[in-house]
Amino acid sequence: MLWADAELRVVNLANVREVAEVRDFLARFGLTFDETVEYTVGLYRHEQLVATGSLAGEVLRNFAVDEALQGEGLAATVVSHLMQEAARRGRYHYFVFTRPGKAHLFASLGFKEIARAEPYAALLEAGIGSIDSYCRELAQAAAALPAGPRAAVVVNCNPFTLGHKAVIAKAAQENAAVVVLVVSEDRSLFPFDVRLRLVREGLADYQNILVLPGGKYIVSAATFPGYFTRGEETVAAQTRLDATIFARYIAPALEVTVRYVGDEPYCPVTRAYNEAMAEILPQYGIAFKVMPRIAVGGTIVSASRVRELIRQDNWEEISKLVPETTYRYLVSPEAAPVIARIRSSHSRH
After folding, report:
1. Distance between CA atoms of residues 121 and 107, nearest Å
2. Edge-to-edge, what's the strand order for the sheet holding 150-155?
3. What is the number of other CB atoms lying within 10 angstroms of the CB of residue 158?
4. How do residues 142-195 score in pLDDT, each as one tens digit?
5. Does Lyase show up as a keyword for this record (predicted)?
6. What pLDDT, on the 0 to 100 scale, is given for residue 228?
7. Concatenated DSSP letters for 292-312?
């Protein structure tokens, strides 16, 4: 396909040379090529790559245009093609990440900016569905909760432990109602549907707790854009962007005035996320409370510890760290594929 004197080609992601060319081109702009993308295109002039972009789920990413050709519409050509490809795959909602200074270019293509984390990243969206409709759905789901102060807890629960339950129980004790948002991104060893179910089962005795899927705007491929920044910038971008979206949109929709977290002695990214929330949430009138991790037998309760004990086949210790509902699932035939995956993996997630 030709555009002016540039040719648009689909990059063969199995071709080492073609991928290396895209990677080197992105590196000129301080960007990295994410291996998880499923579709990449390039615009070539005289066999030289002059613009590129990729698709991963609903996310349009890895955009770059040769400095000498910026302003000639190459970005619009790449974006339009990727949106058409996404639609061909049945996706009609699109996210775009860019540097804050480039956000206006995508706004001119019909994208609406959701939030930014200066000076690292801006997130925009277009298509069917929006953060506004997402927030309306959240508000409707939470409408029946008891009146009074309302808290939020965001959890991954890989799997649900007594540590998670302690933080949520504390929030339920100190507030009229609690909304627990379970991260929907399916990149953990325990599938999302299992994680959501175990949280709901483990909290079934509480009448003032509502457990909901986090959706695409909480700790997702959309709000944690680690692909285009490096090192400490990556952590700063993703944590600040996610915290800002929660404070600006999600907390008001849920009428939440405080967010609870457990402290983080192990994971540097989660610790940085807590630090970002401690800074950003109060700016929007949302209190931020950190609860110390509970310990059993001198060992801090964590999902990573449970997964390690699964690898060790230490079910006696596991039973001390998880609610009965989680333990019952872990020893059931249904969990066998998950247990096998954990034993063969060294992933922290």
Report:
1. 14
2. 209-213, 177-182, 150-155, 258-262, 287-291
3. 26
4. 999 999 999 999 999 999 999 999 999 999 999 999 999 999 988 889 999 999
5. yes
6. 37
7. PPPEETTEE--HHHHHHHHHH
Domain segments of the chain as ranges = 2-129, 132-343
- Residue 242 contacts by C-beta under 8 Å, 6 or more apart in sequence? 218, 219, 223, 224, 273, 276
Distance of CA 150 to the CA centre of its chain: 23
Q: 318: how many CB neighbours lie within 10 A of its CB? A: 22
pLDDT above 90 for 101: no
Sequence-ordered alpha helix ranges (H) in the chain: 16-27, 74-88, 103-107, 131-142, 162-174, 192-202, 231-245, 251-254, 268-280, 303-312, 315-321, 324-330, 336-343
Whole-number Å distance between alpha carbons of 17 and 168: 50
Calculate mean pLDDT across residues 280-298.
94
The DSSP secondary structure of 190-251, one letter per residue, reads S-HHHHHHHHHHHTTT-SSEEEEE-GGGSSSTTT--TTSS-HHHHHHHHHHHHHHHIIIIIH
- Residue 288, pLDDT above cutoff 60: yes
Q: Please tell us whether the domain made up of 132-343 is placed in CATH 3.40.50.620.
A: yes
Neighbouring C-alpha atoms within 13 Å toward the C-beta of 126: 17
* CATH fold for the domain made of 2-129: Aminopeptidase (3.40.630)
Residue 41 contacts residue 11 (beta carbons within 8 Å): yes
